[in-house]
Write a structure and sequence with these properties.
Blueprint: E1 2-8, E2 18-23, E3 30-31, E4 36-41, E5 46-50, E6 55-60, E7 67-68, E8 73-80, H1 89-99, E9 102-116, E10 126-131, E11 138-139, E12 144-149, E13 154-158, E14 163-168, E15 175-176, E16 181-196, E17 199-204, H2 238-241, H3 248-257, H4 275-286, H5 319-334, E18 337-345, H6 347-361, H7 369-383, E19 389-391, E20 398-400, E21 406-408, E22 410-412, E23 415-417, E24 420-421, H8 429-445, E25 458-462, E26 481-485, E27 489-494, E28 499-512, H9 518-533, H10 535-541
Parallel strand pairs: 21-25, 25-26
Antiparallel strand pairs: 1-8, 2-4, 2-7, 3-6, 4-5, 6-8, 9-16, 10-12, 10-15, 11-14, 12-13, 14-16, 16-17, 18-28, 19-20, 21-24, 22-23, 26-28, 27-28
Helix pairs in contact: 7-8, 7-9
Length: 542
């Protein structure tokens, strides 16, 4: 015999409304007393809400981003009372009536809803630069609630329901992420009203924001270390472990698995470490992608007080630098980089380009060598599809991409950004040159939108307009290669009988050695050089 009991938020102290930041269970999961069900976070700490009994999660009525308070019902638990003769009749009768609610009607009603930040793409923390609402305002669907600014673009957050603003929980200067609650709204929704004892349960049937899929509960015993690994795990450094941004249940999991959480990269709100992050970290260790014995910490650069030696000035990094720096470091550390240097003869290409420039001048299009290089790169990617792939997280498979979206490095006052030209294989050099100019202009003005920065399968970084003879570009992971281009120069090339002056373009092709070997890299740059040398064939492809 099963008894359905409410899962109630216990006393939270002085906090009235606390945000749910992680779901630890799904409906149907079996839990024991004191197992964590959800994680909530105040402005000072995070805490798990435990299960009141042993049983099966019957229902959950909250999701990530919701706010809860002491006494709120967040779901129900099915408890087997067949072996509990002490269960009284009243509680049993209440549970029966609760498990069989009576449906009354479907009608429109006002209900308070949270205004949640939607998916922001690859951006974890975004600055709020403008708030468009205040308490009491009436908004319609798609009305702008706030304007956000990343290091690369600005975007508006639209209302997903119509109604009256009840509270505003964000201000200019705040940093927010996907799932953050901007405020609450008194929305008009359609609701199915059911009676359970003296309580009413309303289930939404409007098309508001979809629930965020909860993370699966991780069983620490399911992670088994292969017998071949005989080295013991290093002791956890408590001084660093305590600084990790994680909930108590995640900390417990980390201790059980011997993982120092400070080494784990968090994927949750505000870079919070989730259960899945710990699981992925352990999996990476077991598959050899990370050497746990060496990952206890990279040697730190000593801190120096430069003011002892003279006058100094400290300037903060730009937002772009703060975001791109860790990503570049992660790519350099995790990918075994090799760079193949080569030369491409672009003498004929440059002659034809100069003739074609007259056609584009009146159209306001700058026909730069980069447009031809990007077009030629697509031909090379088609010939060598492995260069247009990505390595799986476990290092056991490759994802080959049948699309050709190429990123290009754009120099801006705030730092380096990589806009993306989509479907390059379907465009001629004129269209590529046009989009190069448009995206570069948006990049310099800081007006690129998130979709214009996502989806690249290969990147070209050209320094030819500045100078240099060669360099080692860092692969833009999860891509597996990047093409660097330096300044072309006239060089004497032996044609079999004499030296003749040719315009040679330096190519620097960096690649992930786990995916591409040296012979493949040389074949790629050699083929690319042939495509650039035969400009007539390149233009026919367009």
């Amino acid at each position: 015999m099963a008894n359905i009991v409410d899962i109630v938020i216990p006393d939270l102290g002085d906090f009235e409304s606390i945000e749910v930041i992680e779901m630890l269970v799904d409906e149907g999961d079996t839990v024991e007393c004191e197992d964590g069900l959800i994680v909530v976070e105040t402005d000072k700490a995070s805490m798990d809400i435990p299960s009141p009994e042993n049983g099966i999660v019957n229902s959950l009525t909250v999701k990530v981003g919701d706010n809860v308070s002491t006494g709120d019902v967040i779901g129900t638990l099915k408890i087997d009372t067949s072996e509990n003769p002490l269960a009284d009749d009243d509680s049993n009768s209440n549970s029966i009536s609760a498990s069989k609610p009576k449906e009354l009607e479907v009608n429109d009603k006002n209900e308070e809803q949270s205004l949640v930040v939607p998916d922001l793409g690859d951006f974890d923390e975004v600055d709020v630069i403008e708030v468009h609402i205040k308490v009491g305002d009436k908004v319609e669907i798609e009305d702008s609630l706030a304007t956000l600014e990343t290091d690369k673009a600005t975007m508006d957050i639209p209302a997903t329901v119509a109604g009256k603003i009840k509270s505003v929980l964000v201000k200019v200067g705040d940093k927010i992420s996907q799932g953050f609650v901007l405020g609450t709204i008194d929305a008009v929704i359609s609701a199915k009203v059911e009676v359970s004892g003296n309580k009413k349960v309303a289930s939404e049937v409007n098309d508001g924001p979809s629930n965020i899929t909860p993370s699966q509960k991780i069983d620490p015993t399911s992670v088994k270390v292969p017998q071949r690994q005989t080295q013991s795990l290093p002791a956890i450094d408590e001084s660093t472990f305590s600084k990790a941004h994680a909930s108590p249940s995640v900390r417990k999991l980390g201790r059980e698995l011997g993982v120092n959480l400070i080494q784990v990269t968090g994927s949750g709100p505000k870079n919070r470490i989730l259960h899945d992050d710990v699981k992925s970290f352990v999996k990476a260790i077991l598959t050899g992608q990370i050497n746990h014995l060496e990952s206890a910490g990279l040697p730190k650069i000593p801190k120096v007080d430069f003011s002892k030696f003279g006058e100094i000035e400290v300037k903060p990094l730009t937002r772009i630098q703060k975001i791109s720096g860790p990503r570049l470091q992660a790519s350099w550390i995790n990918l075994p980089h090799v760079t193949q240097h080569d030369l491409a003869d672009i003498t004929d290409l440059e002659k034809i380009r100069q003739k074609m420039k007259a056609k584009t001048k009146d159209q306001g299009i700058s026909l730069t060598p980069l447009a031809f290089i990007i077009k030629a790169s697509v031909s090379a990617l088609m010939e060598f599809p492995k260069v247009n792939s990505s390595l799986s997280e476990d290092g056991e498979s490759l994802t080959f991409k049948n699309y050709f979206h190429l990123g290009f490095a754009a120099d801006t006052p705030q730092g380096l950004v990589v806009p993306v030209i989509r479907d390059v294989n379907q465009k001629d050099v004129y269209q590529i040159a046009k989009e190069l100019g448009e995206l570069s202009s948006l990049a310099r003005e800081g007006k690129l939108k998130a979709p214009q920065l996502q989806g690249a399968s290969f990147t070209v970084s050209s320094l030819g307009g500045i100078g240099g003879t060669a360099f080692t570009p860092i692969v833009n992971a999860p891509e597996v290669a990047i093409l660097g281009v330096s300044k072309s120069s006239i060089q004497p090339i032996w044609n079999g009988s004499e030296f003749e002056p040719r315009l040679m373009l330096p190519l620097s092709f960096s690649y992930d050695h786990r995916v591409i070997d040296g012979a493949q890299a040389v074949r790629f740059t050699t083929y690319l050089g042939k495509v650039l040398a035969d400009v007539d064939a390149l233009l026919r492809v367009s």
